[in-house]
Amino acid sequence: MSETKVETVKIQDMRSASKDAAAILTQHERDDIDSWLTRYPEDKSQSALLAALRAVMHEDHYVSREKMDAVAAYLGLPNIAVYEVASFYSMFELDKKSAGRHSISVCTNVSCMLNGSDEIVSHIESKLGVKMGETTSDGKFFFKIEEECLAACCGAPMMQVDHVYYEGLTLERVDEILDGLE
Ligand code: FES
Predict the structure, then answer these.
(1) pLDDT tens column, 145-159
(2) Which of 115, 117, 124 is nearest to 178 (CA)?
(3) Where does a domain end: 65, 88, 111?
């Protein structure tokens, strides 16, 4: 086989492997990613990476290595570019053991601590019967390990549930939010 033909076969193999990797993305994930891709120039698909990982996170409640590879293939990026981003941001869980249907992050940094975050953490731990970093036995809640400042200091104490911000928390408000989740 000529060198040109060998190169062509290699490129075809790579394209087919890339297509296979992306095949595990759900239709919902694809639709979500596509809606973000329309906001950027065609050659800037990397701009949709955070949104793509968030779509996977909301679907699977964690981001597996296979899904990272699928996102890379779908966006036409090297796998390492996805691993770097997914492992850098604390909002992405990479361990299946951390996969709860709802992810709770209570900020325990200075402003929140001075406004009662310790009491909120204790309250959630006793309400759910788990410690920070654990998932409830029914898989409903993952209580994330201590979270650093989530940039809502003026609304302290605060928490994120499934990436939604809740500020000015009281114990009653925490109960109301968690009890309202399916
Ligand atoms: S200290 Fe809690 S959001 Fe900044």
Answers:
(1) 877 899 999 999 999
(2) 124
(3) 88
Residues contacting ligand 1 via CB (< 6 Å): 107, 109-112, 149-153, 156, 158
Q: Does 68 lie in the same domain as 9?
A: yes
Best of 111, 114, 160 to mutate for ligand 1, by most ligand atoms within 8 A of CB? 111
Looking at the fold, whether 124 and 63 belong to one and the same domain comes out as no
> Containing domain of residue 78, as a range?
3-88
Element (H, E) at 69: helix 65-75
Total count of domains within the chain = 2
Check: pTM over 0.85? Answer yes or no.
Answer: no
145 C-alpha to ligand 1 centroid (Å)? 15
Mean pLDDT within 35-42: 94
Read off the tokens for 121: 């953490």
Partner residues linked to 65 by β-bridges: none
Q: How confident is the model over 25-38, as pLDDT tens digits?
A: 999 999 999 999 99
